[in-house]
Amino acid sequence: MSREISPPPSKRQKMSPTEPTFVNLTTPSPLAAPDADTMRIFSWNVNGIAPFLQRPITNFFSSKKSHVKLQPASLRECLKRHQWPAILFLQEVKIATRDVKTQDAVRSAVNARLSPGSSKSERGPRYEAYFTLPLDKHNARGLGGRGKVYGVCSIIREDLTTKYQTKVRTVEWDKEGRISVVELKNGSTRVALFNVYAVNGTDNPYRDPATGAIRGTRHDRKLAFHRLLMEECLSLEEDGWEVLLAGDMNVAPARIDGHPRLRTFPQQHVLNRADFNFRFLGGKKQREEKVFDGVDVWRRMNEYEKRYTWFSRNQEWGTSCDRVDYIIVGRKMWDKALVRAAGILDSEAERGPSDHVPIWVDIRLARANEQEDDTNTG
């Protein structure tokens, strides 16, 4: 095609996007506690879990060009600072499947005491950590072929399992450690929460996971990943589940989501973006195909605001960035007004040792007794 493929311009042409604001807090800014009936979900591509498991050093990741004083790279401190969220989704943890020692270290880190002799109320709730790690020896070798690459971790507050029947699983078609699904059930409430670390499209070869034979490029695998994830979402919705996806989607949806400009070269990145928007964000239906009609929560709530989630560590803060981490909910969940709030913690302090910043969403899930009351009303 001769023209660039991108989402159509907004009909409200008289308004224009705001200029980007780059926050440079000296310390992270904690969020207010969520309402009692609200579930807060955090998502963060940490670009390697190792810094969060060593002895905290507050200024270890400070840039020579920056006066930002970073908080300790501590998972427990992060959970406390943000009012003990119900779920923390981590992407790109870079843990090998056989590395049980590091997995146990993460489990200890999310439940560590923040200070000696702290009272039970100060210690906060306990969490469970669930891992989806690479099994594909041909496409997820990592440095030295040890499989220390990709991987996601879903950290769930323990009390959630008393409110809901909770199941954590992956999907059969992903062997690279990119998908974790948390299923919550309570009465007629059925919610599937996806922790997603999407494929990054490149010209590098994609190999058959079983034989190692070349089956196209990583661009081809990215398109297949979109289709397979979409089909997974559609299957769950058809079975009565509400669906939410959170994580690093490895694609900025529109021009407003790239700074100083959206990536359009090589052309395949444009095609990848169009495919993602078509399958997940209600893009123009160019062919007869059922798609997941999702809502990009933060963008819907902040239509013209320029904010980003990935910030290059090789350049000065705010000079090269994209919004590639976001939360998508199914149309049914959005129309029921179950989404309360969403945000991006886009400061150099919150980025910490990663090249991404955390994002969050508050959702309301009715309990079984509330649903019974609704059923009996009138």
From TrEMBL:
Compositionally biased spans, kind Pro residues: 1-10
Keyword annotations: Hydrolase, Magnesium, Metal-binding
Domain Endonuclease/exonuclease/phosphatase, residue spans: 43-356
Gene3D superfamilies: Endonuclease/exonuclease/phosphatase
Taxonomic superkingdom: Eukaryota
Cofactor or coenzyme needed: Mg(2+)
Extent of Polar residues compositional bias: 15-25
Annotated Pfam families: Exo_endo_phos (PF03372)
InterPro entries the record matches: AP_endonuc_1 (IPR004808), Endo/exonu/phosph_ase_sf (IPR036691), Endo/exonuclease/phosphatase (IPR005135)
PROSITE patterns documented for this protein: AP_NUCLEASE_F1_4
Region (Disordered): 1-25
Family: Belongs to the DNA repair enzymes AP/ExoA family.
Protein name: Endonuclease/exonuclease/phosphatase domain-containing protein
Record organism: Paraconiothyrium brasiliense
Source taxonomy: Eukaryota, Fungi, Dikarya, Ascomycota, Pezizomycotina
